Amino acid sequence: MVLRSRNKVSPDFNMSSMTDIVFLLLIFFMLTSTLVSPNALKLLLPNSKAKTLEKQTVSVSITKEIDFFINERKVTENNLERELKLLLENKQEAAIILHTDKTVDIEFVVKVMDIAYRNKYKIVLATTPN
Asked: Model pTM?
């Protein structure tokens, strides 16, 4: 007398749930990869309302005549990075607020942003409220 079990194990595997997971992961990675820009400068743009940052540490200003000021103290273009390093060396979250005249060429603004990017400082471009 041979006893056989009534429960049979099916060797088939349902792949539909696995393909759903794979497609969801694919969509997730495609969306997140478009948001990553490794060479971009990190800018914190202020709202149009007159809000001030609590972590404001240093103010950099560029006048029409391309004069650079750090906290109302004039510095040369060549000494700008060195002076910023001295002021921000012991700050945990170093931040720079950049005030610039409308007529200043963009190359001078980018120069300050590049200094902030190289030294991993946060930078905010100051605007006038509407």
From this structure: 0.55
